[in-house]
Amino acid sequence: MKNSRNYPNEAGAELKSMLEKPKHNSREYPGRPIVGVGGVVIENGRALLIRRGSEPLKGQWSIPGGTLETGETLEQGVIREMAEETGLQVRVIELIEVFERIMRDAEDRAQYHFVIVDYLCENAVSTQRPQAASDVTDIAWAGEDELEPFTLTPTATRILKKAFAMDRLRGAPDVSSRS
């Protein structure tokens, strides 16, 4: 019987390379996609943004969120992540979008692979003010026409624009109940 570290063919050599790749944290070079959750809070026509304090996308502006923990529902994960990153207690309103983010290294291997579920949320306590916490270095509020200076990813920009549209619809009077 061969030693498990002896790889007789090219596929085995690739597996060996993947297994021996140093892991700086559990999100890098995952064995499977990681589920991420995010929350978009819009108040007075402006969305809450965070500047990421860790990889991936360290230093970039984004939607608050993080990874789902074992045993959590998606909504519980959003509520926890929003509290951890911004200090806000939120109420989850509606799904915005599900997407995947795959970031490859120089050798074209999936260094990061997330399936991300973003929700429209609202601040559950009107007197709360967000603050940078956890792995967030800064926070900002931005209107739909103020997003460009934050150099968000195209995906984050698309999701925020959807969230603004959803928020406008929520604020519109319900015409279906009129006679």
How would you describe the overall organization of this protein?
The protein has one domain: Nucleoside Triphosphate Pyrophosphohydrolase. It is 23% helix and 33% strand. The protein has helices spanning 10-20, 74-86, 154-171; strands at residues 34-43, 46-52, 61-62, 65-67, 90-104, 110-123, 136-143.
Spell out the blueprint of helices and strands.
Blueprint: H1 10-20, E1 34-43, E2 46-52, E3 61-62, E4 65-67, H2 74-86, E5 90-104, E6 110-123, E7 136-143, H3 154-171
Parallel strand pairs: 1-6
Antiparallel strand pairs: 1-2, 1-4, 2-3, 2-7, 5-6
Low-confidence stretches: 174-179
What's the tally of helices? Answer: 3
Biggest sheet statistics: 7 strands, mixed
Strand content: 25-35%
The percent range for helix content is 10-25%
Q: What are the defining features of this structure?
A:
179 residues, alpha+beta, Nucleoside Triphosphate Pyrophosphohydrolase, seven-stranded mixed beta sheet, 3 helices, 7 strands, globular, disordered C terminus
Structure, briefly:
This protein has 179 residues and is α+β, with helices and mostly antiparallel strands. The protein is 23% helix and 33% strand.
